[in-house]
Amino acid sequence: MHVIRVVVKHQDHSYDINIKPGIFKKWRELVVECARGGKILSLVDRNLMDIPAFQEECGSAHSPGLLMVTPGEARKNLAQYSELCEAALGQGLDRNSLLVAVGGGVTGDLAGFLAATLLRGLRLVQIPTTLLAQVDSSVGGKTGVNSAAGKNLVGAFHQPEQVIIDPTLLLTLPDREFLAGLAEVVKTGVLAGPELFNQLRHNQDGISRRDPEVLAQVIRDCCHFKAEVVMADERETGKRAMLNLGHTFGHALETLAGFNGSVLHGEAVAVGTRLAVDFSRQQGGIAPEAAQAIRDCLQAFGLPDRISRLGTGPFKPDWQELFQGKGLEEALGHDKKVGRQGLTLVIPKGIGEWEIQAGVALARVAEHLRNSLAAE
Ligand code: GLY
Predict the structure, then answer these.
(1) Phi and psi for 339 in degrees, rounded to 5?
(2) Count of domains in the chain?
(3) In this predicted structure, what is the pLDDT of residue 339?
(4) Residues 216 and 238 in one domain
(5) Beta bridge partners of 5
(6) pTM for the whole thing?
(7) Domain limits at 345?
(8) Domain stops at, among 148, 172, 196
(9) How far apart are CA 246 and CA 277, in angstroms?
(10) Ligand 1 centroid to residue 229 C-alpha, Å
(11) What are the tens digits of pLDDT across the range 85-132?
């Protein structure tokens, strides 16, 4: 088992991230131990109930002590948060109760925000079941929901008591979801430096085959890196902002697409990372070889790296049309990191090198997006 300890100052708190193929079979035992006699309420991604392995472990959707969460960015909203609050309070929770999030990023963010706010704060265990949640969103205590004004605009920092990660759960993940999670893995490799970045390329076959042992190592390395960043800057007053590489571009694309399932968060981050690399390259901020290595890595894993290739299904966005008018500027303006002076962008300068540029004019970023689409 890989164990990573996270120590955070604000809440004078520490917790373990436990990573092991097969550990999910012991989830009840681990959670009961963590609850120390408190009542346990599990918030479970509704889609997991169609998978026999989860049914076996969790029971039916109506089992006592379980609440179903409807996944999807469109339902990571105040309406579902409010429904879950009432349902959770209806189960007779007290300050000693423990919430357990079993699911992907949406379930983890919603359950985390419930834990942060119900009865002014309950303990939380994160059991992420998607790659994106296992390498990123379950670690570091960011919780929250989207608002009509933009993504993740209502939320709180609330660190878990424990994170339990089983890479074998990824074997049941739809291909598209798995791939979307790889975008955060590549992003982490770009930020962490040559050692992790080269490991990703070296282990590309095992990762793509979802070999649980290979994935356990990759997840360990990504969580280790994220834990270091969170321990240095829990509240994102400085270096934690680097984790937003590709996210400002990505959030704008996701917002324009309309949270209807046509574009997944990770897919938008993959294209956003490519856009950030090109933005940096145009300023002479990154050497051509490093920029090419990042583009090659995105392509090697089969991630979308162009705006025109982003999106699928009946709601596939028409980017040419969406980029006309002021919608693009509005979508960029809804980013949490927008200030009076402009946007804050993470600019890759090399593998393991980055710079945070504040006050980048929104019009300049919009122009980069429009030029990139025109050049594709
Ligand atoms: N996902 C970015 C962060 O946790 O800061």
Answers:
(1) -120, 180
(2) 2
(3) 65
(4) yes
(5) 16
(6) 0.94
(7) 175-375
(8) 172
(9) 9
(10) 10
(11) 999 999 999 999 999 999 999 999 999 999 999 999 999 999 999 999
